[in-house]
Amino acid sequence: MTRYDDEAERTFVALPPAQGQGFAQTWWGRAWLKSLEDAAMDAAQVKTGRRLARAGAVGAVSVRPGRITAVVQDRDRTAHRADVLLEQLSDAQWDRFVDMAIERSGHVAALLDRDMPPHLVEDAAAAGIDLLPGMGDLEPECDCDAWDHCGHTAALCYQVARLLDQDPFVLLLMRGRADGAVLEALQSHGSAPAQEVASGPEGVDAAEAYAAGQVLPPLPAPPGLGDGPGLPPSLDTEAGSPPGVDPSGLFFLACRTAAEAHRLLAEALRGGHDRRAMAAEPTVAQDAVRLAAGDPGPDVLDRLGAGSGRTREAMAVAVHAWRLGGEAALSVLEEEWAVEGDTLARARAALGSAWEEDERPALRARANRWTVVGAPHQLRLDREGRWWPYRGEHGRWVPVGGAAQDPATALSAAALATGDEP
Question: Is residue 158 a contact partner of residue 70, using CB atoms and an 8 Å limit?
């Protein structure tokens, strides 16, 4: 939601157009708006500001001690810088506020929950500290040269009411202290709840980073690509393995993971990577074949086959297909799909133009597979319009080459694999 330029300034990203009737849901947010509405000399300007804020015309809001700032656009898209000033509390007033807060554990707990109960404000007022603005405390400044609240400063106040709903510490910052300083002061006085919040999560969320925009440092240079994947540490130890853990299988999995990470990094560093579509996540059955293509031992290979529903022979054919063309080749091996519409028309046109009339083989079609009549050769079409050569072997069809755009080229590869003339 915010970014922190330093301890004394927060910048909130522009909020989307407001929904519903009211801008402020909390009592302190409504009190903020009452200060604006009671003091503004021109009620029409206040209504204009409410309409601008509701329409999303208020840009990012900068909040710092004594001042809030934003760029507000008129209906004609003219941009104006609007500022609203609020008097800061003195150091003595802040000391009294901290002393007052720690006297009642409920006050500290409320602040840590981003809440501002009425009794906290009342106790602060009794100590001579006005947290919420009163009539006339919100002093406007705008480059439209209005002498009182204009539509732009009113819109800014309405937007800030929404921010106050989410975090009353915004008001404390306007009064002169960032939330970190308030919590540190409470902690230095021995408040246990403040100590708990001081150890909150580190880092900056994505919205804060986005709001920071141009003030962020440039990204570091991409990492260099090593000569090859790293080698995981050996899992061979003198101690026995826990039940159900296969050290050799685990070591193989770690090696293949390192190899896949190296491959993905190489792709990411290649030019134009940001313009390529992301590949879909492989299924469990596909990933089993990828792992099996890494030449595991027979025990691991059998486990991969059993886990993916393949016999050893079927896994061997699947691995061969994977080595020829990865997921695409595996899909052509194991999936049969109906070729229809424009895809079927393009396939027929490719088959019709691939050979001279007197040389065209007789083909029998079923789904995405065309089998040569009287020969152990087959063509399979993938969803990208490429042709894959297959041959008959021991009662099954097996891939014998990579994909080709031309069916005649693919069929020649199938013929050569069986020793026939192409």
Answer: no
Per-residue b/e over 291-304, b at no fewer than 16 CB within 10 Å?
bbbbebeeebbebb
> What's the token pair of residue 22?
């009211």
One DSSP character per residue, 74-128 reads -TT--EEEEEEE-PPPPHHHHHHHHHHHHHSHHHHHHHHTT---HHHHHHHHHTT
| pLDDT at site 275 | 74
Q: What is the pLDDT of residue 196?
A: 44
For residue 213, the model assigns a pLDDT of: 53
Token duo for residue 325: 């063309």
Task: Kindly state the tokens that stand for 172.
Answer: 């404390």
Q: In angstroms, rounded to a whole number, what is the distance separating the alpha carbons of residues 180 and 197?
A: 10
> Rounded distance, CA 377 to CA 373, Å?
8
Query: Can you give the pLDDT at residue 216?
Result: 52
Question: How many other β-carbons are positioned within 10 Å of the β-carbon of residue 417?
Answer: 18
The CA–CA distances, whole Å, from 320 to 33, 295, 299 equal: 72, 11, 19
pLDDT below 50 — which residues of the chain?
A: 1-6, 190-200, 212, 214-215, 422
Report yes or no on whether pTM surpasses 0.70: no
CA 338 – CA 322 distance, rounded (Å): 22
DSSP state at residue 213 = G
* DSSP class of 340: -
Q: How far apart are CA 99 and CA 91, in angstroms?
A: 12
